[in-house]
Design goal:
It holds the Pfam family Peptidase_S51. By secondary structure, the protein is α/β, with parallel strands linked by helices. The protein has one domain: 3-Layer(aba) Sandwich (Rossmann fold). The chain has an 8-stranded mixed sheet with strand order 3-2-4-5-1-8-9-12, with helices on both faces. A 4-stranded mixed sheet has the order 6-7-10-11.
Length: about 230
């Protein structure tokens, strides 16, 4: 049974890095009986910080010492196979997927999550938990082998969702960009997650956590809002 916590962002307003979701993560790990176990952290998305810096920041901000980044292992595939908990940080989704495919980790992580290993991720780490990474907000600064992602949630995820147009901005809004995706991919469903929101997944059910509603988008503006604590089938 899949167990996942997918967080839109590492921060919420001015609360600081991972502060708003620290309790959610701890509760998630306790609920599944793995709190205190080693977290295998995947830092590949963090382009502007080294792997060591990223690992240290997550340890400090989560106040959880038993975190080990995958870059310390000589064999990343074995690290995933033996992981008790998998966490994937945010950054650039294209870079993250490039390295997951380079080290042949996508299928291994999928197998682990399908067999019940708890997974949590934020921003890019949440985006890749969907069907594909094609609703990322990031620039394609490197090209991964495929856009096919982990399918923990068998739909698309858009983190950092902002509704409406920014004043004096003449480009497309986020809704318009997501509508473009749905025009081309008419059988898809997108879950657009505002910052400060997460999806907690257990098997084929999920619920929204946080203070904002999640926007569920389908082709031809078939949209609905899913409110906090509402449980729905995925």
């Amino acid at each position: 049974m899949k167990k996942a916590l997918l967080l839109s962002s590492s921060g919420y307003k001015n609360t600081g890095y991972l502060t708003h979701c620290r309790e959610w993560i701890c509760d998630f790990l306790q609920k599944h009986g793995v709190f205190g176990e080693e977290i295998l952290f995947i830092p590949y998305a963090g382009v502007r910080r080294s792997n060591d810096e990223y690992e240290a920041k997550v340890k400090e901000c989560l106040k959880y010492e038993n975190i080990r980044s995958i870059h310390h292992f000589t064999d990343p595939q074995t690290a995933v196979k033996n992981a008790k908990i998998i966490a994937v940080g945010g950054g650039n989704t294209f870079v993250l997927m490039y390295y997951l495919y380079k080290f042949k980790l996508i299928d291994l992580i999928k197998q682990k999550t399908e067999s019940g290993t708890p997974y949590f991720g934020w921003s890019a780490g949440a985006n890749i938990a969907g069907n594909t990474m094609m609703t990322t907000n990031d620039m394609p600064i490197i090209y991964p082998e495929s856009f096919k992602a982990l399918e923990i949630l068998p739909h698309q995820i858009n983190p950092h969702f902002i509704s409406g147009k920014i004043a004096n901005h003449n480009g497309e809004s986020r809704e318009e960009r997501l509508e473009e995706f749905l025009i081309i991919n008419q059988n898809s469903t997108i879950y657009a997650l505002p910052e400060g929101v997460g999806l907690e997944i257990l098997g084929d059910e999920a619920r929204v956590i946080g203070n904002e509603a999640v926007l569920k988008m389908r082709y031809k503006k078939q949209t609905k809002f899913i409110n906090p604590n509402e449980i729905f089938k995925v």
